[in-house]
Amino acid sequence: MASAINYLTFFFFLLLVPLFTAKSVTQINSNSVLVALLDSRYTELAELVEKALLLQRLEEAVAVHNITIFAPRNEALERDLDPEFKRFLLEPRNLRSLQTLLLHHIVPARIAVSRWPNETTRHDTLSEEDPVHLSANSESGRLVGSAEVVRVEDVVRTDGIIHGIGRLLIPKSVQQDFNTRRSLRAISAVKPEGAPEVDPRTNRLKKPAPPVPVGSAPVLPIYSAMAPGPSLAPAPAPGPGGPRHHFDGESQVKDFIHTLLHYGGYNEMADILVNLTNLATEMGKLVSEGYVLTVLAPNDEAMAKLTTDQLAEPGAPERIMYYHIVPEYQTEESMYNAVRRFGKIQYDTLHVPHKVVAQEADGSVKFGDGEETAYLFDPDIYIDGRISVQGIDGVLFPSMEKKLPESEKTVDPVKVVAKSRRGT
């Protein structure tokens, strides 16, 4: 009898183990649409999402499928949320109404511009109560219910899209709860708009020009600009058929390398970028095409630990440096806020398909998830909006790559000393 009880206990333990371990394995990628929402122009919406305790639910949603967020602009929330309705939403007993309101703005599907319907179509939302209706017309453009889409594909990520809309969407169920709870007549949180403006020269309605985000990223992902192997494709010239925004990437890369040399302690990293590889030129091409980069720069003390075997293999310096380049623009503040909120973050690197893991440790950011780890040692050495350089105290290697045993490593490390250059 006792053995039977022990067997049943062990059986139920096996059933429960996946339930406790599955959530711990889930990690939010740094380029997730949720991270972008917390660091976007829609700060009022992001604050409401955190107050509604919805982040964990949204993390589970993006782990299953793509999502589309219709995000009201900050001024729209300030305009549409009158003080009484806002107090109603923020009361603890009305948490469910606040959650329903916010989830009503999120569709569990990827709705890009190319898939936007011409006729009115019904789409279920994460609120699982009131659907939203998408439509399009020649006068107002794309609509979500009665709200106009003012920023089409403002944020695009692999797991979701954010469209900026001009007003708050209020589900009928939330409106009814508010009316019932407050015993008020026909109160709407959406204020009426004034009469449309008419152009006196043509006697037609004025149509505002579609907004174009300043410095928007290129249409193609950064890996499409990279040719097979260690070299990158040349950047097309600006103009018809070229990139929408042209940046002087060569000058920016030269500027950040000079900054590394003048900062001190990063001469070996600068020397590898310029002399041992052609990465400085390739990075300049990418920045000229409109891409952004974050360089995790190991300091001289860390680079001195690289052995002859680690650098002698053909293409090894390029692979090592590619693993330290993140195709996103991150600062010390953005990375620390992300790891503090989500625990662990996976950053894509140019060493495809390897990612570098970051997590909070000792009040800083620690990179790496195995034996080779490095701390954010010198934050924001160089930040210009296109290139960000963050100093770290170790050299990182992908966890999948096999490392040489200690007995086969060369005793004397290779010291790469920056050559003197004019003007530096």
From TrEMBL:
Domain of life from the UniProt record: Eukaryota
Q: InterPro entries annotated for this entry?
A: FAS1_dom_sf, FAS1_domain, FLA15/16/17/18
Predominantly, its location class is: secreted
Which SMART domains does the UniProt entry name for this protein? FAS1
Identify the residues that the record assigns to the FAS1 domain, covering every copy: 29-169, 253-381
Q: Spell out the subcellular localization from the entry.
A: Secreted
The signal peptide annotation in the UniProt record is 1-22
Family designation: Belongs to the fasciclin-like AGP family.
Protein name listed in UniProt: FAS1 domain-containing protein
User: What organism is listed for this UniProt entry?
Assistant: Centaurea solstitialis
